[in-house]
Specification:
The structure is a homodimer of 147-residue chains. The first copy, chain A, has 147 residues and is mainly alpha-helical. Chain A has a domain of 100 residues: Winged helix-like DNA-binding domain superfamily/Winged helix DNA-binding domain (Arc Repressor Mutant, subunit A, Orthogonal Bundle), CATH 1.10.10.10. Chain A contains 6 helices and 2 strands. The structure holds a DNA duplex (30 and 30 nucleotides).
Chain lengths: 147, 147
DNA sequence: TTTATTAGTTAAGCGGCCTGAACTATATCC
DNA sequence: GGATATAGTTCAGGCCGCTTAACTAATAAA
C-alpha cells in the first residue's frame, strides 16, 4: 500500500505545474488563432467525437442553443467545421471538423505534446520509458472513465 | 533508445485526453466562481510566485497595463488578492494572494488532482507507484525548465 | 389532421473585458 | 533642480459572446 499522503501530494504538485502551463499555452493559442474559449472548446469536442448536434454542443459548453448556434456559425464561416443536415431528422444538423479545422486543433495539441517531449529530453531512456508506461496507463484509464 | 514514434504518439494521445478534460473543468470553475479567464490566470500566477507587480501580470497575460490594473482591482474587491505598496519603490504595487484567494485557486487545482486520483484508483499498487515516479520526474523536469 | 414538441436560427440588448489616451505620483538621469 | 522615464490608475469607447424572445421547419403525439 502506498502512502496516500505522498500520492496526493505528487499529483497536486504536478497538477499545479501542468495547469499553469496549460493556461499560458491556451491563451497564446487563442491569440494566434483569434478563436474564443468556446470556439476552441467546440473544436476539441468535435475532435473527440464528430457528428454531434448544435444543442449537444451547447449543453457541453453550458450555454444556450442560441449561443451555440452562433459560435458554430462563426466556425463554419471560418471553414473550420462542417454543418450538414441530418438525413434521418431534417431538423437536426451534424457537425464535424473540416481538414482545416482538424489541422488547427491538432496543432494546438502538438504544442502541449512538444512541451512534454522537451522536458523529458534530458532524462535517461529508462526514465523516459517509465513515463511512457505511466502516461499510457493514465490515458487508458481516463478514456475508460470519461463517457 | 526508445522508438521516437511511439514516444510522440503516447504523449500526443495523453495531451488530447487531458486537454479536453482540462477545458471542461476550467469552464466549470469559471462558472462556479464567476471569475474570468484572465482573473483565474492571475490567481494561478500569484500562487506560483507572489509579490509581482501589475505590469508583470499584464505582460504575463498579454494585455495592456490598463486591463491588468482593472482585473487586479476586481480581484482585490473580491478579497482574493492583496495589493500593497512596494516600500522600495512607491510607484509599484506588490500583489499577493489572500488566504481566501489561495483557498479558492487551490480548490480548482484539487479538482484536477482528484480526477487523476480517481482514474488511478482501479490500478494496482505497482502501477500507481510507477505513475507517482513518472509524475515526480515530469514535475521536477518542468520546474527546471520554466523560470 | 390537428396539436404539441423538438432542432435550429435570427435579432435586439446587455455586460464584461480590452484598448488607447490622459493623468498622478514616484524614481532616475543629466 | 529640471527633464525624462516608469508604475499604476481612470475614463470613454468598442468588440464580442451571451441571453431572451420570436421565429421557421420538421417530427411526434392525439
Amino acid at each position: 500500500m502506498l502512502p496516500t499522503i505522498v500520492f496526493t501530494d505528487v499529483i497536486r504538485e504536478w497538477s499545479e505545474v501542468f495547469m499553469q502551463r496549460s493556461m499560458h499555452d491556451f491563451r497564446k493559442f487563442m491569440e494566434e488563432t483569434g478563436l474564443s474559449f468556446s470556439q476552441i472548446n467546440i473544436l476539441m469536442r468535435l475532435l473527440h467525437r464528430g457528428n454531434t448536434g448544435v444543442s449537444e454542443v451547447g449543453s457541453q459548453l453550458g450555454v444556450t442553443n442560441a449561443a451555440a448556434s452562433q459560435a458554430v456559425d462563426r466556425l463554419v464561416q471560418l471553414g473550420l467545421i462542417e454543418r450538414t443536415e441530418d438525413p434521418e431528422d431534417r431538423r437536426a444538423k451534424k457537425l464535424a471538423l473540416t481538414p482545416k479545422g482538424r489541422t488547427l486543433i491538432e496543432k494546438g495539441i502538438e504544442v502541449r505534446s512538444r512541451w512534454v517531449e522537451g522536458i523529458t529530453d534530458a532524462l535517461t531512456p529508462e526514465q523516459q520509458g517509465m513515463i511512457i508506461s505511466a502516461l499510457t496507463l493514465l490515458t487508458t484509464a481516463a478514456r475508460a472513465t470519461r463517457e
